[in-house]
Design a protein that fits this description.
Layout (H helix, E strand, L loop, with lengths): L1 E4 L4 H11 L6 E4 L6 H4 L7 E4 L7 H9 L4 E4 L9 H7 L2 E3 L6 H16 L2 H9 L17 E5 L3 H12 L3 E5 L11 E2 L2 H7 L2 E4 L13 H5 L5 E5 L8 H9 L3 E6 L22 H6 L4 E3 L8 H19 L10
Parallel strand pairs: 1-2, 1-3, 3-4, 4-5, 6-7, 6-9, 7-8, 9-10, 10-11, 11-12
Helix pairs in contact: 1-12, 5-7
The chain binds 1,4-dihydronicotinamide adenine dinucleotide (NAI).
1,4-dihydronicotinamide adenine dinucleotide binds next to α5 and α7.
Length: 328
């Protein structure tokens, strides 16, 4: 089985090459370019493509992949909001993903962002390097005995809930389904979560009904001085409304690992480029905002689990078996 691997970074190649040795049926070719309509035609002659979070797997790309004879899309990530699933179904292209590789990797990063934004670590680091040992502007607040509001208590949200619980926080949550493993969590309505939380962390998927979940109206319902963390998907937060809220001093701090404009930036070095328009740059101009570039998943354990599951997904397809990892 020949798989064309898009958007390859050195660490992907290293991780996949290490594991593919155990799968003699699989041959991998690596491309640096990401998957989009123009690069999709390179898949001719392959059995499958392997794509990632910022790949454009919309209608046009699927059309080209279908013409190239591709019958399998291997997503080496959990989210699938960038895939036109209806079109895939129409062409009989199966889409397999990695639903959970290391929920703790993302949850730990969410807490890292919350702590760093709260205690202004990004500012403190620079200040000390400049021999400025004053504490002006660095005041934070204790998480101990504060309320953590978790939106979406699936694998990552549950891990974040456990971390917050370990910090001595009261943990409340909103989800369309309750997670029976979280007996220390109180489930509340979304509005109640907004009103009561000192820290809100987003862990639900991006779907039509969660698009711009955080907007002017929902921000207005939040407690003043709340910390908002988003490690899920950028589209959950309406950036312009977030900026308005930050200007209105609604937020104590904001930590974002994902944001609406990220697609072109994710995993690229654009430091020599002149940004013509960027709401992200506007966000970064605020002292209480900390942004990282979709690195929540980026731990050794998570990368190993991603490559292992992706290759197992390919084998499942090869054997013509059903898979719980299939996006339907
Ligand atoms: P999951 O599927 O285990 O959990 C998602 C939870 O959200 C489920 O409990 C579901 O019932 C809930 N949910 C669905 N609709 C909702 C709604 N309208 N309101 C509230 N909750 C709702 O997914 P998992 O593995 O926990 O991942 C969550 C998200 O994290 C993914 O969708 C992905 O976008 C993001 N992610 C980010 C990464 C990063 O590197 N920053 C890496 C991996 C995932």
């Amino acid at each position: 089985m020949k798989i064309l691997f898009y958007d390859t970074k050195a660490y992907d190649k290293e991780s996949f090459e290490k594991q593919v040795a155990a799968f003699p049926e699989i041959e991998l070719d690596f491309l640096e370019s990401d998957l989009e309509p123009h690069t999709a035609r390179l898949a001719k002659g392959y059995d499958a493509v392997c794509a990632f979070v910022s790949s454009d797997i919309g209608t046009e790309t699927i059309e080209v992949l279908n013409q190239a004879g591709i019958k399998l899309i291997l997503l080496r990530c959990a989210g699938f909001n960038n895939v036109d699933i209806t079109k895939c179904r129409e062409y009989g292209i199966r889409v397999l993903r990695v639903p959970g590789y290391s929920p703790e990797a993302v949850a730990e990063h969410a807490m890292a962002l919350a702590l760093a934004a709260n205690r202004h670590l990004h500012k403190a680091y620079v200040k000390v390097r400049e021999n400025d040992f004053s504490l002006n502007g660095l005041m934070g607040f204790n998480f101990y005995q504060k309320v953590a509001g978790i939106v979406g208590t699936g694998k990552i949200g549950a891990a974040m809930a456990r971390i917050c619980h370990g910090f001595g926080m009261k943990v409340i949550a909103y989800d369309v389904y309750q997670n029976p493993d979280l007996d220390f969590v109180e489930y509340v309505s979304f509005d109640e979560l907004l009103a009561k939380s000192d820290l809100i962390s987003l862990h639900c998927p991006l779907m039509d009904n969660t698009y711009h979940l955080i907007n002017r109206e929902t921000i207005a319902k939040m407690k003043d001085g709340v910390i908002l963390v988003n490690t899920s998907r950028g589209g959950l937060v309406k950036t312009d409304d977030l900026i308005e809220g930050i200007r209105a001093r609604k937020f104590f701090a904001v930590g974002l690992d994902v944001y609406e404009e990220e697609t072109k930036n994710v995993f690229e070095d654009r430091s020599a480029e002149i940004m013509e328009h960027s709401t992200t740059a506007r966000l970064l101009s605020f002292p209480n905002v900390m942004i990282t570039s979709h690195q929540g998943f980026f731990t050794e354990e998570a990368l190993a689990a991603i490559s292992q599951t992706t290759l197992e997904n390919a084998m499942t397809f090869l054997r013509g078996e059903e898979s719980g990892n299939e996006v339907k």
